[in-house]
Amino acid sequence: MLDYSLWGKIALCIFCGTIVGIERQKHKKPIDVRTSVLICLGTMIFIYLANHMDGEKDSTRVLGQVVSGIGFLGAGAIINRQGLVVGLTSASVVWVLAAIGAAIGLGQHAIGVTVSLITLAILMGSHWFENRMGRNGA
Questions:
Q1: Residue 106 domain-assigned (yes or no)
Q2: What is the pTM of this model?
């Protein structure tokens, strides 16, 4: 049976994944709201399960495996088009979403929310900056 702390973590993952995913979806990037929420939620569940298993609990091993595995998912977002590498930001967002889910899974809720807001600010700020630079001819 699900305990109340897990429900809070699930809700927080949905919130954090949604705010990052909305920004990505707005700019028609491959990492949309659904993907963002699922990455955050999936990572949190792996960490949560590692901390609630019977016997030896070593969430650091699980965390290490998540970091390795999420790299493969991020690599799928990177493609080479006519000699240009695209998708690096999307791959980075995948990694950050996994980190947010891990923080929430480890009970570091404030870190998860803070990193989500910082990620959103970076993504929005970089779009603003790139648009300004383009308009000024720089």
A1: yes
A2: 0.87
